[in-house]
Design brief:
Elements: H1 5-11, H2 15-20, H3 23-39, H4 55-60, H5 66-71, H6 105-111, H7 117-129, H8 134-142, H9 154-162, H10 168-180, H11 194-200, H12 208-218, H13 223-231, H14 249-255, H15 271-278
Bound molecules: fe (ii) ion (2 copies).
């Protein structure tokens, strides 16, 4: 077990505070805790445990039901689908550094993708190690970054954000990785993520639109590419490996059409989405 349970309990304010939290709030706190640990490079294998049976139970107690999750909605000051840039779990959001006049994908990674950056770098690194194609590696590198803007239906949002700049195949894999995450594929060693029982409830069944997307992708010529995003989408970390964006510069150069005006200023149909990530403090 890679999670430092006592450190996690301490981060909640001690055992008494932890006991008073409902399971779903604990699940949110655990995700937050582990992302922070990953970002701080403290525990090499910390996030690997999220997909191993029993670990979520061990750290959190029993799984919530969908009804229990539903009952928590009115206890929060935010909605769960809100993007990371727009939310603080610690009281206040940090002041963001200004973006350059013509921001590149790398600028967004360095200055805005602070919550998701490490996770997607890990995924892309794993895909590269597994000898997958450059397009799959790029899809892994981009797949969750839109969660800085919005989390709900992030596969669809993320594909839209990147569609003008990547191949149709890369956008497809990004869009549908969200749906495929809910369906196992033993041929590729992919199992239902344990942490999803905490996030969605033990009795959760994917909505019809997710099921329909899965059925479509299952028989699509790009199923493999999409499935590979989910296979490499583990919260994994190899000890001593700290992937940097620079390792993917050539792949980005070959497969990402960086607009010369900068992302957010090229008048593309998604430019406003990039600007919203660049300047999330604008009141309107
Ligand atoms: Fe995702
Ligand atoms: Fe992911």
């Amino acid at each position: 077990m890679e999670i430092d349970k006592s450190a996690f309990i301490a981060s909640l304010g001690g055992p008494a505070a932890a006991d008073s939290m409902n399971p779903e709030a604990k699940a949110d706190a655990l995700e937050d805790f582990m992302m922070k640990e990953l970002n701080q490079h403290k525990f090499g294998l910390a996030l690997k445990g999220l997909n191993e049976p029993g670990i979520a139970l061990d750290a959190l107690g029993k799984y919530p039901t969908m009804a229990e999750i539903e009952a928590q909605i009115e206890t929060r000051a935010y909605r769960r689908g809100v993007g990371n840039l727009f939310l603080s779990h610690t009281g206040s959001v940090p002041k963001l550094p200004p973006m350059p006049a013509r921001p590149t994908l790398a600028d967004y990674f360095k200055q805005r993708f602070t919550f998701t950056g490490n996770h997607v770098l890990q995924s892309a690194n794993l895909a590269m190690k597994n000898g997958l194609s450059e397009e799959i590696i790029l899809a892994c590198l981009l797949h969750d970054t839109v969660q800085e803007l919005i989390k709900v239906d992030h596969g669809w949002w993320s594909a839209q954000l990147y569609e003008p700049y990547v191949s149709e195949k890369v956008a497809f894999a990004i869009r549908y990785h969200q749906a495929l995450r809910f369906y196992e594929d033993k041929a590729y060693g992919y199992e239902y993520p344990e942490i999803y029982r905490m996030f969605f409830g033990e009795d959760y069944k994917p909505e019809p639109y997710i099921e329909a997307a899965y059925q479509m992708v299952r028989n699509h010529k790009w199923y493999f590419e999409t499935r590979m995003v989910t296979v490499n989408d583990l919260y994994s970390f190899e000890p001593g490996v700290n992937p940097q964006l620079e390792e993917f510069t050539d792949i980005i150069g070959r497969h990402f059409r960086q607009p010369k005006e900068g992302l957010g200023f090229d008048n593309s149909p998604v430019a406003h989405m990039w600007r919203s990530i660049a300047t999330p403090d604008r009141p309107l």
